[in-house]
Write a structure and sequence with these properties.
The complex is a heterodimer of chains A (81) and B (432).
Chain A: E1 4-9, E2 12-17, H1 22-27, E3 34-35, E4 41-42, E5 55-58, E6 61-65, E7 76-78
Parallel strand pairs in A: 1-7
Antiparallel strand pairs in A: 1-2, 3-4, 5-6, 5-7
Chain B: E1 4-14, H1 18-29, E2 34-37, H2 58-69, E3 73-75, E4 79-84, E5 87-91, E6 96-106, E7 110-112, E8 125-126, H3 128-136, E9 145-151, H4 154-164, E10 168-174, H5 178-187, H6 192-204, E11 210-212, E12 214-220, E13 227-232, E14 235-240, E15 243-248, E16 250-252, H7 255-259, E17 264-265, E18 268-269, E19 282-284, H8 294-308, H9 312-316, H10 319-335, E20 351-353, E21 358-359, H11 360-364, H12 369-376, H13 388-396, H14 412-418
Parallel strand pairs in B: 1-2, 1-6, 2-3, 6-19, 8-15, 9-10, 9-15, 10-11
Antiparallel strand pairs in B: 4-5, 5-6, 7-16, 12-13, 13-14, 17-18, 20-21
Helix pairs in contact in B: 1-2, 1-8, 3-4, 4-6, 5-10, 8-10
Classes of the chains: A mainly beta (81), B alpha/beta (432).
Amino acid sequence: MPETLTVRVNGTPVDVAAGSTVAVAVLLSTGVCRASVSGRPRAPLCGMGTCFECRVEINGQIHQRSCQVLCEANMEINAHG
Amino acid sequence: MDSVAQRSFDVAVIGAGPAGIAAAVAASESGARVALIDDNPAFGGQIWRGGASASHHPEAGHWLDQLSKSGVTLMAGTRVFYSQNGALEAESDHSLCEFLYGKLILATGARELFLPFPGWTLPNVFGAGGLQALGKSGLPVKGKRVVIAGTGPLLLAVAAYLSERGADVLCICEQAPFSQLRAFTMAMASFPRKLVEAAQLRFRCRRAPYLMSSWPVAAIGRDRLQSVQISDHHRVREIQCDYLACGFHLVPNLELARALGCSVTDACVEVSELQETSQPGVYCAGEPTGIGGMELSIVEGRIAGYAAAGRIISANQLLATRTRYRKVVNAMKKAFALRPELATLAKPDTLLCRCEDISFADVRNHASWRAAKLHSRCGMGPCQGRVCGTAAEFLFGWAMDSSRPPIFPVRCSSLAAISSPASPAPRLGGSQ
């Protein structure tokens, strides 16, 4: 079994396999990364850092592409879908 | 304000997929001091994402091993956003770095082409390679009902990958007709290994029907995907599913090449016999010179790496191999040419620009990409038109303007740190 670690998405703990990206943690919890400029829910599209749909707040830093950031233990992720 | 760490190299390679890794290894074994810089958190590009253990390609293990044994300075999670006076400005999560280089090799790879259709912005509609990348990044897909759609050899690879990890791949919708796919198979007859590879991929996802002349018409759902309507031989039917993985083959990442002033023709960077662009000392290898796959990328990378390090004889020895693999570029272009119906899927209220929520109707009556940007704000968001601009090229036949720095959104402090009276700050665009 791969090692797991726990992050928090909108305050709720989520377990992910070590080496997972933040996008994975969001998809395993709320499934929505952000609200679009007209308020519609958005989630990862390209998975490789080009589309910017998966932006979330990570440890207080806004506009982070969740598909390009690896989860670290106790990371605080805010996905305002 | 961030301080700028300055580092100097003989050769800087941007992009650490097959082309970039091969280029960096070749330049390094020639004695050059080499930096390999990539936006992603790990090396291997998209095709070798997840390392050798996640890949069916023996090349992945070989090249990642060669890279680790080389003296190449590895800079992952580092985005090059600006270039001025022979230096590259790059940002990582916590720092800012300036790379001075003698020679530069662009190996910026490709991205998927996404086309708008009703519902394409719903959560759980992914790119085809997008869902595979998320799988390789830790997303479990076991038990998920997945429709795979779009075009290109990637669809089969994604279906095989997802099937093996327990996904229920309901069908693979390839927009190309049988006649084009048959011609592609014939054209690939001189690459028996590739044909065997394709057969193996098909075997690994054998439970999923492979539909030709089939494409997505709409994604249905309220707050997330519930079903997909597909056109299958001109009949529309609806399939309940958890995920749609949809991508219309690949387009090169040209932003950095364009910002550096490299000549681009037919959406590919022009290169010389030795992979040098129209800008002296700037080389380009891999998908930006034409979508040709891993083998071509590796050989182009090696040629560029040797040439940049001055080992012209070693570079010349690889030209025949490159000529052989170059045939794949045209074969793929023909086989996976997009059918005109795909330009008619979007309804007037379907969003084209996902960053700024600009509809198809708001964009379609403008005369050019530039006019559409100025009047509607499409392409002015954080992706800087990487999604909608690329779609607009196909939908409206618009040529992309040259790209302006910063070529990635960056922190204001990064822009401030690189500005000086001698070098005016680049225009802000989509920054945070």
